């Protein structure tokens, strides 16, 4: 997915542990972990707003778009065990 979640970076910059952030924004630690690891399929604007307010940051400090990231389906190993890009042609 071309969206990268940098929440852990911003939390480290603010020296805020996961438990404290989860408590302040009203999110369970499990759901915060899902968001931090980039496994979330969506995020509510109200949650994003709360995170930005508590961490004193902008949404772009937490979410990053890059179309340079390779899709996991396009990765395969060649005969030497090196990672190559798979073509669907």
Q: Notable features of this structure?
A:
89 residues, alpha+beta, 434 Repressor (Amino-terminal Domain), two-stranded antiparallel sheet, 5 helices, 4 strands, globular, disordered C terminus
Structure explained in plain terms:
The protein is an alpha+beta fold. The chain has a single domain (3-73), classed as Orthogonal Bundle (434 Repressor (Amino-terminal Domain)). Helix content is 43%, strand content 13%. The protein contains five helices and four strands. The strands form two sheets. It has a two-stranded antiparallel sheet with strand order 1-2. Strand 3 (75-77) and strand 4 form a beta hairpin. The longest helix has 11 residues, at 45-55. The radius of gyration is 17 Å and the shape is globular.
In CATH, the architecture is Orthogonal Bundle
Helical segment count: 5
Helix content: 40-55%
Strand arrangement, major sheet:
1-2
- Average pLDDT works out at 85
**Beta-strand residue percentage:** 5-15%
**Please, how many domains?**
1
Give the oligomeric state of the chains in this entry, treating copies of one chain as homo and distinct chains as hetero: single chain
Question: CATH homologous superfamily name?
Answer: lambda repressor-like DNA-binding domains
Q: List the helices and strands in order.
A: EHHHHHEEE
């Amino acid at each position: 997915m071309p969206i990268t979640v940098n929440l852990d970076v911003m939390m480290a910059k603010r020296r805020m542990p996961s438990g404290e952030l989860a408590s302040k924004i009203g999110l369970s630690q499990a759901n915060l972990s899902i968001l931090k690891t980039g496994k979330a399929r969506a995020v509510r604007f109200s949650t994003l707003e709360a995170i930005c307010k508590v961490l004193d940051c902008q949404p772009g400090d937490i979410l990053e778009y890059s179309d340079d990231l390779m899709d996991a389906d396009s990765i395969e190993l060649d005969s030497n065990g090196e990672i190559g890009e798979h073509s669907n042609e």
